[in-house]
Design goal:
Elements: E1 11-23, H1 24-27, E2 35-47, E3 51-55, H2 61-66, H3 73-78, E4 81-82, H4 89-95, E5 103-107, H5 113-116, E6 126-129, H6 131-137, H7 142-147, H8 159-162, E7 163-165, H9 166-169, E8 171-174, E9 183-186, E10 193-197, E11 206-211, E12 216-221, H10 227-231, H11 247-263, E13 268-271, E14 286-287
Parallel strand pairs: 3-5, 5-6, 6-7, 12-13
Antiparallel strand pairs: 1-2, 1-4, 1-14, 2-3, 8-9, 9-10, 10-11, 11-12
C-alpha cells in the first residue's frame, strides 16, 4: 500500500534529557579533539486522536544508578553523562502541563541507554519498538549488553506485556519513488507517523517520518549525529565503528539520508544528538 492521503499532521516538540560528552572528532570526521556535548534528544508528539506520544526518552537518574559498578560503569566512563532531575523527560513534560499518565505511547528508535533511560517514568504508556532491535539485546549478559549500549534495568518490569513490535502492529507502506528508502510502517494507519528502517548504528534502528502543519520532518535517531555531518558529508571517525552494529549499513543509511535531503531539500532531518535542534541545558523547547 502507499502512504495514505491526506497525511494527518501532528504537533512536534523537541527536548533533551541530559547529555553526554566525548571528543568531537569521533562523531564528525575531521572534527576537533576538544570535548563536545551531545544532548540526549527526545520528541514529544501530539496526535489529534491518540494524544501525547514520545519518540525515545533520553536519560534518567536510573542510568547513573545502574552504572555504578562493572561492567556497566565502563559505559559511563567512555561517555560521561550530565543530568539533573529537572532535565528528565517526565519533569519537562510536567512543566508543560503534561502528566505521565497522559503519554499513551512511546516509540523506541533502538535500545541504547540514552534512548530508553526514562521508560519507567511512564507506567501508562504502550511501547512500540522494532523487533530486530529488541531481539538483538534482550538475552545479552552484562558484558555483551555493555558493549551493545544496553542496560536491561532501564526497561519496565512489564515491558514484554505492554510492548508491541511495530512489525506486528503496523502495516507496510510504500514510500514515494523519489525517496531512497522504499518502505516504512504506518504506526496508526493514517499516515501520521511512519517508522523508517535506518540500520547500522544499532540493530533494527528506526527513524520516524511525520508532518507538522508547516514542515515534513524525519527524526533519524542516531543514523547521523548532527545536521552538520549530513550537510558536509562528514560521517563519524572509524573509532565510532567500535560501537556500531554494522559499519557498512551505517554508511549506506548515511548516504541515503544525504540523498533524500538533496532530492527533498524541504525535509527537516533531526538527529537525536544534534545541538541545532536540542538544547543541552534542557531549558529550550524547539517546535517544528
Amino acid at each position: 500500500m502507499t502512504v495514505p492521503q491526506p497525511i494527518v499532521p501532528v504537533e512536534l516538540l523537541l527536548m533533551s534529557a541530559g547529555y553526554c560528552v566525548h571528543p568531537e572528532f569521533v562523531t564528525l570526521r575531521g572534527g576537533s579533539l576538544r570535548t563536545a556535548a551531545y544532548p540526549a534528544g527526545f520528541a514529544c508528539i501530539r496526535h489529534p486522536e491518540h494524544g501525547w506520544i514520545l519518540f525515545d526518552t533520553g536519560y534518567s537518574p536510573r542510568f547513573q544508578e545502574l552504572t555504578q559498578s562493572l561492567p556497566y560503569s565502563l559505559y559511563r566512563r567512555i561517555t560521561p553523562v550530565r543530568l539533573n532531575q529537572e532535565s528528565t523527560a517526565i519533569h519537562q513534560l510536567a512543566r508543560l502541563g503534561i502528566s505521565a499518565k497522559e503519554v499513551r505511547y512511546i516509540i523506541l528508535s533502538h535500545f541504547h541507554a540514552d534512548h530508553i533511560g526514562g521508560l519507567r517514568d511512564f507506567p501508562s504508556a504502550r511501547f512500540l519498538y522494532p523487533q530486530e532491535a529488541y531481539d538483538a539485546v534482550r538475552t545479552l549478559g552484562p558484558i555483551k549488553a555493555t558493549r551493545a549500549g544496553f542496560i536491561a534495568g532501564l526497561l519496565p518490569d512489564n515491558f514484554a506485556a505492554v510492548g508491541q513490535s511495530i512489525e506486528r502492529e503496523a502495516a507496510i507502506v510504500k514510500l514515494d519513488d523519489s525517496i531512497p528508502f522504499p518502505e516504512g510502517r504506518d504506526l496508526f494507519g493514517d499516515g501520521s507517523l511512519i517508522a523508517i528502517p535506518l540500520p547500522g548504528h544499532a540493530a533494527g534502528q528506526i527513524g520516524l517520518l511525520l508532518n507538522t502543519a508547516p514542515a515534513q520532518v524525519l527524526l533519524c535517531a542516531d543514523a547521523a549525529w548532527s545536521s552538520r555531518a549530513l550537510r558536509e558529508n562528514r560521517p563519524p571517525h572509524p573509532l565510532a565503528g567500535l560501537v556500531m552494529y554494522d559499519r557498512q549499513a551505517y554508511r549506506d543509511t548515511f548516504e541515503r539520508l544525504r540523498s533524500w535531503q538533496t532530492i527533498h531539500p524541504q525535509l527537516i532531518i533531526v538527529p537525536s544528538h544534534c545541538r541545532t535542534f536540542y538544547d543541552i541545558d534542557s531549558k529550550e523547547i524547539r517546535r517544528l
